[in-house]
Amino acid sequence: MMRPIPVICDCDPGHDDAMMLLLCQASPRIRILAVTTSCGNQTIEKTTYNALRVCTLLGIRAPVAKGSPKPLFGQPITAPNIHGQSGLDGPNLPEPAVPLSPLTAVELMAQTLRQSDEPVTILSTGPMTNTAALLLAHPELKPKIAGISLMGGGIAHGNWTPAAEFNVLVDPEAADLVFRSGLPITMAGLDVTLKALITETDIRRIESISGEVARVVAQWMEFFYAFHKSIGYAGAPLHDAVAAAWLIRPELFVTQQMFVRVETQGDYCRGATIGARPGRTDQSYAPNARCILDLDRQGFVDLVCEAVASYGGAT
Amino acid sequence: MKPRCIWLDCDTGTDDAAAILCAAALPELKLAGLSSVAGNVEGRKTYLNTLRICRLMGRTYPVYAGAAQPLAVPYTPAYGFHGENGLGGVELPLPEHCDAPELPAWEAIYRCAVAQGGELELITTGPMTNAAMALLLHPDLPQYLKRILVMGGSATGGNRTPAAEFNVYADPHAAQTVFTSGVPVVMCGLDVTEQATVTPAQLSALAACGGTVAQTLCRLLATRPDHQRGAVMLHDVVPVLYAARPGLFEGRKAWVRVETKGAITRGKTVTDLYSDKKYPEKNALVLLGVDRSGFARLFFRLILSLDGICTDEACLDQIERGALT
After folding, report:
1. Of A64, A151, A152, A267, which is least surrounded by CB within 10 A?
2. CATH architecture, range B4-196+234-290
3. Share of chain B above pLDDT 90, in %
4. C-alpha B232: how far from its chain's center?
């Protein structure tokens, strides 16, 4: 048995963040050392409350710490149209039975890195505010970071604006710091996450699994799909879960090493992740990120269902 | 059917040369005039190169010299792709008279558009400086232009920089002026032009069938770096062939804007094609696909027609296979 990968889950739950936490907690390949929250899908108060509720539901006992109420330099942007007023609308959830850490997100990240005897992977599925602040505040801890697996950006896609994906758009300066950090980065951008669809058939399959977690997940997916269906999607894109699935089952994915930079300025391109495809430009650009571009969707759905089923019940 | 009236504005350029030749050869199109702009190489060179290509096919068209500088950014050439003379170092003879008319390109375009009473279609294969100048100086121009077909931009990343295609990068403000002018735009960007290729073997077969025009054009195209890589991208030919034979192409209407201010995205054409965020205003038709075989065969047929050579399907089959006679 391989040693599990120690991770810090930095997220803004969010339906797909919740699914990221579910995949991590259910997998023997991953050990969650800490959960930190960012403001993104909803305000920091709501994403933090959601993180505590999801950890309670899923039995995650790692410390949870609250992040910054706003991006490094800009103002928060929230996505109630997608995740609802609570940030995690749909089924009723248990009230938090796990405590909120007295530390800030950055303090908890730093403490976790210091205390770990092996480098830790940061799994970032919200705006990258906390991770960027950590890099600014504690450059000495960089060697303790094994890499950053993130959901954000898109080489050929935007969603919130034509050029930019939500997580990067909310805090482009933070994303820029992360992409220029020199740390190994795996980017699960829209190029792959738009293909990580949970269809109605898949939702029925989740419903057929017994247990409280399966019931909640099916309702999350119903809620999450309703919005996406209204704008023409064939399923619910489980963006954030892809960044976790990559750590658990890398063989499900197709990746390409690429030079990626974040635009922080511009009239139309703030928050765009610009990738240099090898051979297209005269100049060559040294790759700094592994971009996930495609996946075995059925394998991904199976992984999700297995994770749900691990909470009791049969597929 | 009466041929449609077009104006060709280019920064000649090896693939611009091919575009000029195709525009002259297409029976569906009447080439009302040509103009040159600084782009692949300096404006003086693109003007003379345009004359050289007209002379090559033994035709006389009005040719006007245009902008020597982009509107608001410094000039940047593309010597790496077109050589310092713009024609890959190949020396072609000039016609007897090569003084540029006093009328600048943008005035000539405006006058032609007015004279055609709204039927003129403007094709640009270089930076869009001349078109933008005409639009800036003549606010009534949009009503006289039927549409503007541009080789430029990309919905998914560039060639001059990771974000931007060369022609739009070279004069982003001009491109933004064109895209927001209210005139319908057909954007022939890298999405389609990178598919519009011919192989070195096909060009050799074309030259073997042809006379001076085909052989000379093949010499020009053989100097390009993409020829060495095995597939010559006929970027600038795309808007010309689209103007005559739209059925060879597919595209989608989109909202398109040009980034002029980004730190790393200057000259990026931003579309709402691949985004949840959509805008009701669709100001451009973005070409995304081409019938590659149909495109190449039409190109071969047009070039050979300028040498007075009629081609049958068997002959085109042979060229397409890259087989030498």
Report:
1. A267
2. Alpha-Beta Complex (3.90)
3. 97
4. 15
Measured between beta carbons, the chain B residues lying within 8 angstroms of A261 are: 162, 264
Pairwise CB contact (< 8 Å): B272 & A267: no
Query: Domain range holding A266?
Result: 5-309
**Strand partners of residue B10:** B36
Judged by CB atoms closer than 8 Å, whether chains meet at A272 and B268 is answered as yes
Comparing CA positions, the residue from B205, B219, B199 lying closest to residue B309 is B205
Question: What is the spatial distance between Cα B165 and Cα A42, in angstroms, rounded to a whole number?
Answer: 37
Test the B interface: residue of A267, A283, A288, A293 with most B CBs within 10 Å: A267
**Domain residue ranges of chain B, discontinuous segments joined by +:** 4-196+234-290
How does pLDDT run across A96-112, given as a tens digit for each residue?
A: 999 999 999 999 999 99
Task: For residue range B191-247, list pLDDT tens digits in order.
Answer: 999 999 999 999 999 999 989 999 999 999 999 999 999 999 999 999 999 999 999
Condensed to tens digits (0 to 9), the pLDDT of residues B145-190 reads 999 999 999 999 999 999 999 999 999 999 999 999 999 999 999 9
Q: CB–CB of B157 and A280 under 8 A?
A: yes
Catalytic residues of A: 239
Q: Which residues of B are catalytic?
A: 235
* Domains of chain A: total: 1
Instruction: Give the span between the Cα atoms of B188 and B3, in whole angstroms.
Output: 22
